[in-house]
Write a structure and sequence with these properties.
four-stranded antiparallel β-sheet, 2 domains, Immunoglobulin-like, eight-stranded mixed β-sheet, disordered C terminus, disordered N terminus, mainly beta
Length: 304
């Protein structure tokens, strides 16, 4: 999901860096559990394969059945193969194209906790608002993001063992200024204490650390009037309470190579378990990213 940017003012901004630094996640759900089985027998060059080669473990294996009475729905069957040593969660962006290849619609689907060394099968259904009837074979994979299952953001479902949920929003953009908000909710049974900014690590396409980016703890070197200049302070979240932070940068491109960061690993504090989000940061060539401190956002939280 490509990051947009946010008009000002915005909630404090948090996350990302080449090293864990600081003071101190939309998408449609899975289309139901498919049967798990050894790796799919269909090769990328198999006759009639509609999608070509596999992308990061994901392959479209055939056209799905079009629901009766829903001619505008494009559908495809796909498999996800996890070749890692631990379970991974996959988020796949699909694009429906016309017969001429024009993009008509996109949709995301998350396949959680694919076991190590296993393949699962799913079906994606995309409602195409324009262009009338579309063949399911025109569904294409446009992007795959995958993170270790125990680091995947979770907006719903059982509370993680950490007792907190961390997600990233879609962000906003204005005049080249980019902002992505980070949101933390205490879903546990006790008070959760925050102090300072999130610890963040920037990761590339292969989930390796990105170097050469300065992580700032206010936005003075990037913009003004955002509230990032406010000093950090302790925040105690009662059960159900929420806090926010954020990231801010400019995607200016000048001399040098533009830096794109698909993954950001976030820790709420020094002893917290990491959560990896995919905000798709287009950092340009500025080499700077500002991370704001946590701030309480509702009455269930007390900022001291």
């Amino acid at each position: 999901m490509h990051t947009a940017a946010r008009t000002l003012p915005v909630i404090a901004i948090a996350a990302s860096a080449v090293l864990l630094t600081a003071c101190g996640s939309q998408s449609t759900g899975p289309s139901g559990r498919g049967a798990e089985h050894p790796e799919a027998p269909r090769a990328a060059d198999a006759p009639g394969d509609p999608a070509g080669p596999e992308q990061d473990g994901v392959r479209i294996t055939g056209a799905g059945k079009r629901p009766h009475g829903e001619p505008s729905v494009a559908s495809a069957e796909f498999t996800v193969t996890n070749r890692e040593a631990v379970p991974f969660t996959y988020t796949v962006t699909f694009t429906v194209t016309s017969a001429s290849g024009a993009a008509l619609e996109t949709s995301q689907q998350t396949v959680p906790s694919v076991p190590a060394g296993r393949t699962v099968q799913r079906t994606v259904r995309v409602d195409v608002a324009q262009g009338g009837t579309h063949d399911g074979k025109q569904v294409r994979i446009s992007k795959v993001r995958r993170v270790p299952a125990d680091e995947a953001p979770s907006a719903t479902g059982p509370c993680p063992p950490s007792g907190i949920r961390i997600t990233a929003d879609d962000g906003d953009a204005a005049m080249g200024l980019r902002v992505v908000g980070l949101h933390l909710t205490n879903c546990g049974t006790g008070t959760y204490h925050l102090d300072g900014s999130p610890l963040v690590e920037l990761l590339d396409e292969g989930r390796k650390p990105v170097s050469g980016i300065d992580i700032l703890h206010d936005a003075k070197g990037i913009t003004s009037g955002t509230g990032f200049e406010n000093p950090p302070g302790p925040v105690d979240l009662a059960p159900g309470g929420s806090a926010s932070a954020g990231l801010v940068w400019r995607n200016t491109t000048g001399a040098g190579t533009a830096v794109n960061v698909p993954y950001v690993r976030i820790k709420a504090g020094p002893d917290a378990r990491p959560v990896t989000v995919t905000p798709e940061l287009d950092l340009g060539t500025t080499g700077k990213l500002a991370v704001s401190p946590w701030k309480a956002v509702d009455r269930a939280a007390v900022q001291q």
